[in-house]
Each structure stands twice: as C-alpha cells, then as structure tokens.
C-alpha cells in the first residue's frame, strides 16, 4: 500500500512542475511554429498541455492556495528579480511633472541669460549717452568762440559768393569793386544777424533793471509806501544761469537763460531792496518775480510782491536771498566807505601841504645861499 501512495505523490509533483513550466512558456516565450507543434504531438509518452491541465485542475487549486498563504523563503534568484513600482500612474505623473518643471526652469534660465545682457547693454548705452552729452557740452564751452567765428566766416563767404553771382548776372561791374563791395556787405549782414541772435538768446541786466523800475514807478502801492519818485543806484548784483547748447537724446537744444537781479531803491520816505527774476522765453523777457523788501522802524522787514510769491522767491535754493546779503552789506558799508574816503582825502591834503612847505623851504635856502655869495 505504501508503494502506490508514494508513486502517486511523485506523479502529482511531476505533473505540477510540468504544468508550471508550460504556463511560464505560454506567457513569456513566443508561440511555437506549426511544424514544431506537429512534431511534438507525434512524440510518444509526452502528455499534452490540455490533458495535464484537466488532470490537475482539482489538485492545483489546493496547491496554489497553500502556496499563497505560506511565506516564500528568500532565495538567490529573488534578490536579482526586477520588481515594478507599485503605482505606475503616479510614476508617469511624476515624470511628466518633472519634465514640465525642468522645461519651465530652462525657459526661465534662458530668459535670465538674454535679459541680463540686454539690461547691461541698455544701462551701458545710457551711461555712454550721458558721457557723450557731457563731452559735447564741455567741447562747446571750450571752443564756443572758435565755432562761432568759423560759422560766421563760412556764412560770410557763402553770402558773398551768392550776392556776387547774382549781381554779375544782371549788372556788369568791375571785378575789384564787386568783390570788395559785396564782401563788406555780406560781413555787415552776418554781423547784424549775429547781434540779433545774441539779443534773442541772452539777457541784458540793464534792460531788466529798466523794466523793473518802470513797473515800480507805475505801482500805486509801492509809491504810497515808499513815496514818489523812486530812484535807483549804480549798486546792482546779478547772476546768470542756464543758456548754452546741450545734447538731449542725441538732439542739440538750447537751455533757457535766467537772470536774478537785486538792487536798492530810494523813495522820498523809505528805502527798499528790489529782487527780480527774469526768464528768456523764446526771445522775450518773462518776469517771474518782482518783490521789494522795505525795512520798517519797528518789527521785521516788509516784503511786497508785485509779481510772483514766496515760492518763487525760494527758487534755486534761495538764490535771491544769497544775493541779498552782499548787497545789504554793501549798502550798510556806504557810510564806512565815505568815512574812509574822507580820511584818505585829509591825509592826501596834509601830505601835499607838507610837500609844498618842504619845497618852499628849499627855495628860501637857495636864495639865502645865493645872497651870501
């Protein structure tokens, strides 16, 4: 009885092993050709896959269930067995996200690479543009007289040739008279044109003084406070600002010119100090400020504004107030200067008297010596 049981057990094990081998070949190996399958079917004593499957369908179920519940022992082949990840979708999502993140980083990196040279180039260009503008202004200031003279000579020669050509076409004149005559005429035209342009671009302080005195003498409030008539003095202080040729965005332009003028005035009742600011606007004098500081017997000085206000008085960092101090000091020093002048005159008179007495004594001595001989 023991032999049949042992033989049946060994047969079951052999069939199970053959079944697993055939299942593995069915899943992992390519399907055999028809010729090969026909050859194998003719070989005796080789059980077919269907026969083995039908034979061990019942026994295989129990063996597989037992195999699943039992823990397999680690073997050498299991160490090198490749195991796929548990969540392939998550892996694919992670790889996609990594690709997107890397592409964004690459784009940002490329953008930074191209932005930094662009900003550096623009900043360098702006610095060089400012440097070029400053160099141009410095060159014009150093060589302004030479440039104006060369321009005047070229214009004079051009005008001379044009007038000489026109006159020679219609009138027959001698060559010498025509040349020198039209040369003098062209020189006069260029000179008057230069003076006119200079008067349009600059500010004349004497003209500003006359404009201010005209306004003051026609102001009823000023005349009532200071008393008529108002008269000025030769003491004046003025500062010119602006003007000249500049380069803005590689385009030459002219700066507007300003004149800050301060001078004292005197009325029949009080004295005052006039502050004026004038701007040359398209060749016309635009008066921005006209104020009079009147000292009072009690209290601080009173400031009367005919044009402008306190904000305009503080333009340029209080430039008018800076001019006011030396003028006030000069006005206060007039008496001291008069005293010094009187002392110097007395000293000069005394020195002349001593010199005359010395000469008189020398003459008397000469006469006495001549009479004794």
UniProtKB/TrEMBL annotation:
Q: Which UniProt keywords apply?
A: Membrane, Transmembrane, Transmembrane helix
UniProt entry tagged with the keyword Aminoacyl-tRNA synthetase? no
Residue ranges, compositional bias (Basic and acidic residues): 351-373
Tell me if Protein biosynthesis is a UniProt keyword of this record.
Answer: no
Where exactly are the transmembrane stretches of this chain?
A: 145-171, 177-197
Q: Where is this region: Disordered?
A: 345-373
What is the protein's name according to its record?
Import inner membrane translocase subunit
